[in-house]
Amino acid sequence: MNQPASLPLVASLLDAPLPPSGIAWLDAARQENRAAFAIGGLPDTRVEAWKYTALRGLGQRRFTQGDAAAQTRAVEASTLALPGVSGVRLVFVNGAFRADLSAVDSLPAGLSLQPLSQALRGDVEPLRFALSRHYRDIGDAFAQINAASAGDGVVLRVAAHARIDQPVQLVFVGAEAELAWHVRNVIELGEGAELSLVEQHASRGDAAQLATVVSDIELRDGAQLHHVMLQDAAAGTNLIRRSSLRLHARAQAALHVLELGGALVRHDLRAELIGDGARVHTRGVFMPHGRQHIDTQLAIRHQALDTTSTSHWRGVANDRARGVFRGAIVVAPGADGSDANLTNKNLLLSPSAEIDTKPELEIYADEVQAAHGATVGQLDERSLFYLRSRGIPLAEARALLTAAFCRAVLDDLPNVALREHLSTLLVAQLPA
Amino acid sequence: MLKIENLHARVEGKEILKGLSLEVNAGEVHAIMGPNGAGKSTLGNVLSGRDGYEVTAGSVTYNGIDLLALAPEARAAAGVFLAFQYPVEIPGVNNTYFLRAALNAQRKVRGEKELDSMQFLKLVREKLKVMQISDELLHRAVNEGFSGGEKKRNEIFQMAVLEPQLAILDETDSGLDIDALKQVAQGVNTLRSPERAFLMITHYQRLLDYVVPDFVHVLAGGRIVESGDRSLALKLEAHGYAGIGASHPAVPHQAGAQA
């Protein structure tokens, strides 16, 4: 990590700082994070969290920051539609809010939703906690550059006890041009509030891009969130996301994550169970193919009494692709009565594909139930032969078994139409 | 329809079939009996094309074509069906979906029109009625959580839907109680026709009380050592395989005791 600013990527990202926001604490935070990025640069594979994801190639690239033409990039609103999802929608193209593609005219009672670029012109005090953070950890490089550079994103609040019936769709599109963009999302569900979110990452065109997305999600006492993340970016997209959830007492979050697209994809998914009785359930499938690299870093911290986490993830790698999964569960001192369960099963469809999986369990409390397991294997020969003996051709039999393997973790997604759509996308990704 | 000549096959380097010959014509029901380790299941697996079975000599001709040259799915499309001794559980794949995919894949190869879900459902309902099987099995994943009897009935049900020309039943009677056995036998009898042949591989003659074979063969030491009509099965029942072994040195003398 000598002279990080000499790395082409780091130098190019430091090239054009954001214009002053007029908010002193925000500008100070941006400066601080920018300076930290300039000094620290990119983590190398000696940093544990980046052990299996080398940034050497990406580090040699240069990207211009932001897109002056973001408002005029051709994106057809109808192509962003998802089955089972209608109503409120916020769309960002190359990191900038696009009012023309969004649907925010009639928000249900209790839901407040606006782009960060607008929110910063209003009462910014509620955003201060999230946006004044200084990222100092080694390995936080992309959070630093995001904090320094993101001028737009989602600001979403659900009022206490409000129940939002229709799913809210958040769409992040990378379009056409070779550039870097960053979005910052701040989401909060008030006490006893309920929300269903669908977060979608898509592309138009195949241009090489670097995108960072940082989301903070706060669930107050008894709040309930269903969150679907569908990542189907184009093959040129390098997409680095960090989603951090904090769950207060009795709050519940259920996440379903589908990682299909992108070139180098990294998702840090963190959940802190800070209130008694909080529960988080994560389900995910990552399916790299071609030369894709998809890395999921799941970290769950049990910090209160009687908290529960279940995490079931499946990986399928084909061709020369690489999948990485790290599932780290920490049960902190005093988090007695915690219940944690983590599994990660993986399939390799080609001899050149690779999946590195690492479940980690650290327990510092009493009366804890914890289980974890990970496997990497191939399709079951007996099952393949059974299907073929009935007339199903080999390729179809493999697709059928692989899809079944993945679908198992999406089964409990309550939105049936969306679940079937995700299932169709899974199958479409399989080798013909 | 099926002509097996001097078939030799190895599994994991060990020769199991040692010159097996057999001819089956359309409309016939053949029972293959024999002690454990005689090569009964190997025969079924070789005929259906399972990996890991190496044919070192001999030939299998099916309707004039070299069966051994075909992939398992091509054999199925050509009308060969294997009812498994141990049907495989496949979580996440719905039984109905699986069966329709199988039937349509076969129809596609044969140049027939694929069935849409309504047409398929109609066919399935007919077959369920004939086979006297509850439609509850249809809504579950393939064989997942099925009892032993349900798995075997599901095999026969698949056979009814796929309508093969040559059905090979690998110890379909094993592990069944008498009611399940009768039900499976009734299914097989319903499917008997002048165009269809059956090869029933079995250890016991019990099944043959309900499905009366035209021919009975004794497989021992990797070869057919004796052939006859149904009375041969009754003789085996009375005297065990040891009696056959006495006149055929190829049979290990302790074979009867293993049963």
Automatic annotation (TrEMBL), chain B:
ABC transporter domain: residues covered: 2-246
Claim: Nucleotide-binding is one of the keywords in the record: yes
NCBIfam families per UniProt: sufC
Protein name: Fe-S cluster assembly ATPase SufC
PANTHER family: ABC TRANSPORTER I FAMILY MEMBER 6, CHLOROPLASTIC
Family designation: Belongs to the ABC transporter superfamily. Ycf16 family.
Keywords carried by this UniProt record: ATP-binding, Nucleotide-binding
ATP-binding listed as a keyword: yes
One Gene Ontology MF term: ATP hydrolysis activity
Upper taxonomic lineage: Bacteria, Pseudomonadati, Pseudomonadota, Gammaproteobacteria, Lysobacterales
